[in-house]
Amino acid sequence: MGQAGRLKWSIGPDEVPEWARWAAFLLVALLGLAIRLPQLGARPMHTDEAINAFIVGQLLAGESFRYDPQDRHGPVLAAFALPLVRIQGAKAFSDLTESELRLTTVLSGTVTILLFGASVEMFGFAPCLIAALLFATAPLPVYYDRYFIHESLFAAATFGLILTAWRACKKRSTAQAALAAACAALMLACKETAFLHLFALAAAAFVFWRWNLRGRSPSGLWRPKAALAGVAVFLLLSVILFSWFGSNWKALAALLQAVPNLLARAGGEGHQKPFWYFTQLLTGGLSGGLISVLALISFFRTTRKRDSSAFGFLAFYALFLAVIYSLIPYKTPWLALNFWLPIALFAGLGIELLWRMPAKYSAFRIPIRAVCIAVGAALAVLVAHDTRQRVFLHAADETNPYAYAHTSEDLLGLPAEIERLAHQDAFAAPRIAVIAADPWPLPWYLRHFSEVGFWQPGQTPGKADFYLTSTEAADELGDQLQDFRPDFFGLRPGVLIVLWAPAPK
Amino acid sequence: MKFFLSTISVSAVLLLSAAGFAQNQVVLKTQLPAPLFVGTPAPLNVPNLEPPMRGKRPDFYIPSGTINLARNKKVTSSDNNPDVGTLDMIVDGDKDGNEGSWVELGPGKQWVQIDLARSANIYAVLIWHFHSQARVYRDVAVQVSDDPTFRSGVTTIFNNDFHNDLGLGAGKDLNYIETYQGKLIDAKGVKGRYIRLFSNGNTSNKLNHYIEVEVWGKPAA
After folding, report:
1. pLDDT on residue A6
2. A489 contacts in B (CB within 8 Å)?
């Protein structure tokens, strides 16, 4: 398997010295890091990011992580972010900054780029290098690697699982099996969607074995000892993470609710999209179409040939993942990051196939190479354009398909306006009452104020110097706002929040 | 008896006034576009916030013979190269809220100016900035003048820029949420040839949009 079954035009790992391989991938990872770091704090905090930041703030305050399958994903993001923000000097929620938090996902994205370097034995040097370059620079992975949500870590853990499970089978290695199990546990402790991915991976492995390997004896692929080690590591790490290092055993019971909740959420909960949503998202922009075409060329070639290389397995994984995610009504754009592992690798293989076509059609060597260079150059220009537009120039714009129900840039002016008005009215520590059914991400933007209270519509807030109300809640306060002047701020597209400041005398 | 006579007299005066008013005043009738978002943002019903429009806007009376003088007139702007659309779309009669009906000016403070071709008595200005989602445009101000440079003879008929970001003086008018019914400003018969409308971004982004502006008036005698 692997070496013998690899497509004959691919560059094998032995053809590139190991030091050269890692130097190349390290450079690409540094490029990815260089693209991900600038203006990291410029985009407003999305509600999901603000909630994750609040959880990190709770941990900084000495609380333990409380897993709640209804409202929270798993603890991995907070577990990785906590030491990182501490290193950067944060001691409390109010100390946190956008860039400090987002560094966690930037680093996990950089690890994913490096994992392409570790996958050369599976997928070949050139496809992995091209895939790493695409992952390092393309708008979608760059955008969501700069987003303080679980998806970036989840993608890295998924890649780690594929890589180590493949090695565990190939080398019959107990250590690799344990690593694979650790990656699976990390996936589960990231997001409950791990169940879907583990199912897709298992189904892909089965079909690949039956169809591509033609039912070769599985005894040569795994050992009971490795399987047992894997199960033990998976259980142990899952228990450690979900119980937050033994401080919250109730989380294990709550974990049993994860699947029913996942099934309920899959129905949509306001995030229903048509089945072609991800296709539209992934082929969008100027570069999406070209990347998708390159990926599809090698995808169809791989499936048609019943390829026994790792690409054969990857094709089924991509297919099952696409079917599952497309059929589930609940769709958010960051889920598309999961498609980027197979897409980047197949696009890399597609480019390599084109480049090596002259070996088969030697008469057309020069035109084929010219086309390859033109495609590569076009791809570089289009990717650069899309990344600049979507990641940097219009990161929170509602026309940006990645900015989903995103916090408006307008809200960035709210804390400054309250500070200005508080200074003007000589409030040393202004009392701020927030009355809204869904106040997020306001807790993030009001974290520097010491006297902030949150009420639901219908509740009576205390006396305050400033009120922040949803447009619905303002109706109920009536006389309480008699001497206040309203000012609107955009919370999200189409959602406004009203700041009530003392009216000028 | 004295009370009876005085009641009769007052009633007669009121009836005569109403009859006179009815002869000279008509309801401003403009063609409204289709509302584009279901669940119009919940109205705000608090003392010093602009009263919400529940359903149709109350009738607004203008002198008979008043017409929309802005239709197809020349429009200039602080941003003569809009990112989306062209300036003539502001007075083309298309009030649809969908893409293709609005002009998008650059970020920050911007203005558009309509030349009515001759001086007129203006009774109402109707503005549609954007109505496919709940938005508030910042620092909305409307001025009328006979001077195209707006250096002299300027009358401000609306100004909700209470921070004085535009430098026109701090406004006292209220913020409002954009709807398909547009914002109606009572111009009280002010005389002028040029209308200048200001804005300074909105609650969704820093850009400025106009779908349509109507200027209801009669050419000055």
Report:
1. 47
2. 203
Phi and psi of B85, rounded to 5°?
A: 75, -175
Taking the Cβ of residue B136 and every Cβ of chain A, the question of whether any pair is shorter than 8 Å is answered with: yes
> Nearest Cβ partner of A494 from B37, B47, B48?
B37
- Residue that is written with structure tokens 């000016």 in the block: B105
Whether residue A360 has pLDDT greater than 90: no
Residues B68, B92 contacting (CB under 8 angstroms): no
| Percent of chain B scoring above 90 in pLDDT | 59
Reduce the DSSP state of residue A212 to 3 states and report it. Answer: helix
Residues of chain B positioned with their CB less than 8 A from the CB of A474: 44, 46, 49
User: What pLDDT is recorded for position A66?
Assistant: 87
Specify which residues B184 forms β-bridges with: B126
Determine contact, residues A127/A9, Cβ cutoff 8 Å.
no
CB-based contact A474 B46, cutoff 8 Å: yes
**Angle in degrees, 0-180, between the axes of helices A174-190 and A194-207, rounded to the nearest 10:** 140
Contact A433, A453 (CB under 8 A): yes
Burial of A269 from C-beta contacts in 10 A (0-12 / 13-18 / 19+): exposed
> Rounded CA gap, A200 and A25, in Å?
28
Per-residue DSSP letter, B49: S
Query: Is B106 within 8 Å of B137 (Cβ atoms)?
Result: no
The answer to whether residues A369 and A358 touch, using CB atoms and an 8 Å cutoff, is yes
| Confidence bin at A11 (pLDDT 50/70/90) | low
Q: For the whole prediction, is pTM greater than 0.95?
A: no
CA dihedral defined by A484, A490, A491, A496, rounded to 10 degrees? Answer: 60
DSSP code, position A277: H
Give the E-state strand segments of A23-144 in sequence order. none
For residues B217 and B101, give the distance between their C-alpha atoms in angstroms, rounded to a whole number: 24
Burial of A132 (0-12, 13-18, 19+ CB in 10 A): buried
What digits encode the pLDDT tens for the residues A76-123? 999 999 999 999 999 999 999 999 999 999 999 999 999 999 999 999
- CB-nearest to B203 from A481, A484, A496 is A496
Q: What is the pLDDT of residues A392-446, one digit of tens each?
A: 999 999 889 999 989 999 999 999 999 999 998 888 889 999 998 888 899 999 9
Centre a 10 Å sphere on the Cβ of residue A315 and count the other Cβ atoms it contains: 26
- Whether the per-residue pLDDT at B9 is higher than 70: the answer is no
Tens of pLDDT, residues A188-202: 999 988 999 999 999
Min Cα separation A147/chain B (Å): 20
Question: Which residues are paired to A502 by β-bridges?
Answer: A484
Q: What is the ipTM of this complex?
A: 0.71
Examine the pLDDT at A359 and tell me if it is beyond 80.
Answer: no
Residue A144 — left, alpha, or beta (φ > 0 → left; ψ -120 to 50 → alpha)? alpha
Contact B203 A398 (CB under 8 A): no
Q: Which of B46, B133, B136 sits opposite A477 (nearest CB)?
A: B46
Residues of A in contact with B54 (CB under 8 A): none
Q: What angle do CA A240, A243, A245 make, to 5 degrees?
A: 50
| CA atoms of A238 and A235, how far apart (whole Å) | 5
